Predict the 3D structure of the following.
Amino acid sequence: MSPVASVKTLKIDGRDLSGRQEETILDVARQNGIFIPRLCEMEGLSDVGACRMCLVEIKGQNKLLPACVTTVEEGMEVTTNSPRLEHYRRMILELLFTERNHVCSVCVSNGHCEMQMLGQRLGITHVHFPYRYPQEDVDASHDRFVIDHNRCILCTRCVRVCDEIEGAHTWDVMGRGINAKVITDLNEPWGSSETCTSCGKCVHVCPTGVLFEKGRSVAEMLKRRQFLPYLTLMRKENE
Amino acid sequence: MTPEELAEIAESERVAQSRFTQRVNVCVAAGCLSCQSQSVKDALDREANRRDIKDHCQIKGVGCMGLCAEGPLVSTSSGVLYRKVQAENGAAILDSLGGQPVSHLVCRTDTPFFQRQKKIVLENSGVIDPERIEDYIAGEGYSALIKTLTEMTPREVIDQVTKSGLRGRGGAGYPTGLKWSTVSKSVGTKKYVICNGDEGDPGAFMDRSVLESDPHRVLEGMLIAAYAVGASEGFAYVRAEYPLAVKRLRTAIRQAERVGLLGSDICGTRFSFRVDVRLGAGAFVCGEETALIASVEGKRGTPRPRPPYPAMEGLFGEPTLINNVETFASVAPIIRKGGEWYAQIGTEKSKGTKVFALAGRVQNTGLVEVPMGISLREMVFEIGGGVPEGRKFKAVQTGGPSGGCLPSDCLDMPVDYESLAQAGSIMGSGGMIVMDESSCMVDVAKYFMDFCMTESCGKCIPCRVGTYQMHRILTAIGNMSATQQDLKMLEELCDLLKHTSLCGLGQSAPNPVVSTLRSFAEEYRAHVEEHKCPAGVCNAQPGGETE
């Protein structure tokens, strides 16, 4: 018997589209070239719904739902952009800019940063919340890579890629709330980590300039992510 | 364990108890223990031994009697309640048995505090010894379980719970029958029942008291639920800050296992169920069901987006029923007396009784159980005895950090899920903090925001950074250094958190601010415009910056 795939039809921003029942709104939107902002989501990794940038409006639902974890349903009518959504997205991004020290002019990812690009796309010209200016660490103990916590947005892509794709689970999160931070092993220097395989996957999925290769200067850190869809595809075929 | 064996235990316990013509019950729940009730009980024991009256006079440690403000509490078989008892009063109390009560210790029980209560969940609290299963069984304990296992189908059990109109007592008020029905219909290789005892609201201690005073009732509720939904394994998740509750619950589990009420083939049926205790490690967010599940699984306690709901995919990906301690504690009486009986109590949409922890500026702080629909005025001024020292009532805070502050013009509102939500607060788990004119509402809002900020798990941005920014603004208002712009920003943040946060903690974190902004806008204005704190709590600080 051939496998049964249940296909749902739905409307996104007025366009009639279809998606398999296990696909999310974000999947279908992406296939059809509809832009939904997101920071924590990454194709090939599990979804956590943490950044709240991909919240969309669904007709008949008074709650905003994250497009990255909401699966398509028959007859769904999704709005991916509205003044309200834009207002919230801008505020969330502003909050993120105030949280740590995001100084683009000295950042290795300047010009290639997902957060920076999103800020431009959402038309953020200034931040109206006061900045926190926290003192964050930089760990350069690893032979090839550096982590600069000043630029971390806690999207946990590094945690997920290390656990789900590389299988090392070197990264994790410690602390709560505003004091949360990503750590290697049990908060040991990255260079002395016994689990790290130095594969560099975390560096390349990182949306900002937190994780980068040693020797890169301002704007020089380009992230290469081709491995992710390739690995995911190969794994699926082996299943 | 067969029904006959259970009846035998009950009978022999009743015979054993009937030997005692006199009884002295000492509260050994956390409230009274903290004011030395253990030494009172020891003194009574010593004195009874010395007089050699232990064959007819029983000195028993029991659970919470409610009026925690007057502890240690002691009650006697002649129906007298003593308050603020000290070890040296032991002899006098024993002397008084059967005669005139010790007048200077007597606590009047004809007051509204005692008379207005209706005890269902707490019916055994302060009556039975929480560390002896026999005492529980003698008072109809586990008879509801036997009834479900031998006479009812799972569907019938769910029908009774649905009919009772019971709603989740953890705060959100989701219909319990519907939840049970959903889990029972879900498909999985295994199903789980989880009891949520991660009570973390400041000022709330209902679940602690129930677990300390009557742990078997919670187990019985879990067993009935497990039978109804088809679960074979359960977890009781209790916060580690409740060592006594954990100890008594563990004792109860051991006792139930010993007599065969937990384990395999319970009561000679095919039904098997085991319960393990899991301790919370001090994170408030672990009271949120998906975070709790992650914590039980041994992971970091952070919430995940729902759906899928735990009823479909919960613990280890299997269908899971999660109810609060008090919800489980309400189940046995519903099964014993029928759903219709329970549905007669309360209001149209909020049935039954609710346990509240009265705290703050109120005469009778303690634990009360009242029918739903009672007015806030009755709660505060009759049962609570009003505000002490002749001060003026200002607000009552319900629902902890997820709830709101209700001003005096809400006093005649009935206490039920809908009314509280409409007034901008929530029922929550049952914490009720009364405030008088000496409380500054900005300060109160700041306190709760501080709580939410430190308890935010940090997963989603609105809650992680939003609570920080809100706390910063509230601190600035308290320091008299805030501007109108800050107030506007505060309102914007309230709206953002409510609509974009991932879990209930973040979504409800603005509630204390929203409700005080609505009812006490004048106080905010005074801080911002006149740099004055009407209650005299906040002081302008030089520099006026935050942190």
Q: What stands out?
A: The first helix of chain B runs from residue 3 to 18. Chain B has four domains: 19-108, 140-343, 353-436, 447-529. The first strand of chain B starts at residue 22 and ends at 27.
